[in-house]
Amino acid sequence: MADASLPTGRLKPPFPGMWHLSDPTASDAFPACPLPGTGVRLVHYANKFSAAPHETLAYSAWIINDSGEELTLATLVLRSFTNAGMEELHYTTGPAALSVGPVPAGGETELVFTYVVTENDQRHAGELISAMAVQAVTASGTTLWDEHDAITPIFLA
Question: Helical H runs in 9-156?
């Protein structure tokens, strides 16, 4: 239900006595959220929306430095790579090293992995899940962490 005392299009709180996001007096009630510009980010994705057996997927892992200072070391952590049958998979190719640095403030670097989808992956149906994380150390010695999963659906025959 619309409230005439709030800016146009804003809604009243769903329950009496509760504040609402649109209430300007409620802004102090929220703890600070981590936003871009507060550390290191990992953006991880496959080059195709979905895949079929014998297709090659290229997984990009972008390490983005939002810390405001140089990263002296950033290490990509391969957490897991599985199909819907929870079988452990292995990338066909990947970079020679998973650590990079230095990465300047505002800089980024990409690491690429490939995988050839198998008929066994398709038999399990579902998807491939590539889970990665990044751990980085700033020039001032602060350790930063982020993680991201790339999920690729498999075409069903």
Answer: 119-123
